[in-house]
Amino acid sequence: MGLSSAADIDGAQLCIFDLRRGQQEGQELDKILFFHPADCPILLQLSVIGLCEGIITFTRIFSPEDDCEVIESDKHSHVFYQAEPDIWMVLVVQKIKDNESTLRFGALQGILKESHSLFAMFHGPIRTLLDRQPSAEFARGHLHTFVTDYLSDFSVGKKLQLPTYRDSLTERGTVQMLTVSREVALEVQSLTTVLGSCLRNVICQSIVLFEDLLVSTTLPLDDTLNLYTYAILRLTPSALSSNGNSWSYLRKGGYVNADTTLSSANGAAAAERYHSRSRDTSPGGQNQMHHNFRPLQREKLSKGKDGFVAADFATTEIRGAVPLNPILWFHQAEERMYLCVYQHKNLTILLVIPASSLINGEEGIAHVKRHLLENASQNIVSVEQKLSRGWGGENAYHVGGYRYILSDPNRKVSRASPPGKVITLSKDSLLALNRLRGEVDLEKSRAKRSDTTHDKDYEVCIRAKNNAWIIAKISRGKELYMAIEKGGETLLYASTAVEKFSNRYCEGAFSTD
Question: Where does the record place Polar residues bias (predicted)?
């Protein structure tokens, strides 16, 4: 079976399709929900998706319980992710000599997972949208606008610049937390208590961030991750700044082609047509359909004089552009929430209010904002001052001699060397580290298929071409990857370096004893 369907397309393609649709001859186009680039000829879109569907069907013969994750050919890498039952996202990346050894499927699949999680948070599951309107016009419209806006962070001209070996010490899908003293923790706890009482007898949930780090959360794990990810991408001071870089290792491009504009217009039209026939108030319902809600449209987000961050998406003939507070669907909490964002200097507060508790959305949100300003301002100022005094700057978590990333996939948290230190590594070190992480990704995938109940421990130390030590260690579900340049020549040196790091910074999680 040849993998040549994408050979005539330059660069990367991302497609979303539904295996339950388009099963009759002549209806194949119906299964396509999204395709990037939008100007790709229809026949090539069908060819790419037909090949992907064939691969999925073929691999299920041998492994019916496990999803296909990656297929490598001479010219392309196909990265698969089943976002929802029978709804697949596939990223097709063209191989060239410069990147053949630098693509890591775990990092590429992370893009698919993140984009779907964010979409579901704002618009609900794709399957729900399809069931609500079987023609899929509405689902396609929102997918086109949302995923196109998401991909704008990767756009360089007409192409996507995806994670490469230079991003081997980053981990998408995790939260980075700020370590605080007991005194500050008590101050933060007092602040979250005040925030929770912003709406009479209804408890509001909150997330507090300092810079791009999580300080506290009252939300469940998955909901915290999704909202934190959105904040880092669009809401923190660095993300709002015109010179900010919300994802440090990605180059931002301001390019938007005509196809993007056309997709956005089509999405707005589809949403408006469907809104006229629907009384739904769920995410993707009245609020967000009527205003063509686009939460990732960077230029629409701004901080007002009152400190609240809002998007001027809602436009009326009488009032003109007015702030729109999005409705979110939290999967773990199983509840719709309004999102209200307040910012004071480097402190960002994400307040989520149960939508069912607000009879009149706008008036209710206005009441919550007044309560926050009247009752929480002093706490907010105090917390921000104390965090600023104790903040060590962007190099706060730098460890001399090490370039590392430490992650706990079960808790979805990570900590890493600052980007300014990572770029000091040589290309040979980064290539070797990225290659090793790719091998570990495959090993973890195999281990998960063979035994889903136990995490497999794993340890590798290799010597790169430039004599740097490249280390990967997985112990009791936690993962550590590091590069040590200018170190000793023996394996004992590398082992001792890991032991010292583990005992001092990881509470012995990677120690041999």
Answer: 281-290
